[in-house]
Amino acid sequence: MKHVLFHILQVFAVLLALLIVLLFVFAIVGHLSWLRFFLAAALFSFIAYFVLPRVRAILEK
After folding, report:
1. Are 23 and 32 in contact (CB under 8 A)?
2. Domain limits for position 6
3. pLDDT digit string (tens) for 18-40?
């Protein structure tokens, strides 16, 4: 069961990275303002670097 949850966390982390790339492309094309891009990137980075490791630590217990 833990293996499946760790795999889900890895997939979620990769999806966050891909979402940042997609938002960057939208910002370049002009469909998204740069401020929204940076706010979204900061939120996703916070999730990837602070929330996911804490969830993983909880799952390892």
Report:
1. yes
2. 2-60
3. 999 999 998 899 888 999 889 98
Spell out a b/e string for 2-32, using b for 16 or more CB atoms within 10 Å of the CB, else e: eeeeeeebeeebeebeeebeebeeebeeeeb
- Here the tokens at position 27 are 């910002």
Give the residue from 11, 20, 26, 25 showing the smallest Cα distance to 45. 20
Question: Contact, 59 vs 7, CB < 8 A?
Answer: no
Q: How many CA atoms lie within 13 A of 50 on its CB side?
A: 6
Separation between Cα atoms, residue 58 and residue 42, nearest integer Å: 24
Domain count, the chain: 1
Task: Tell me the percentage of the chain whose pLDDT exceeds 90.
Answer: 16
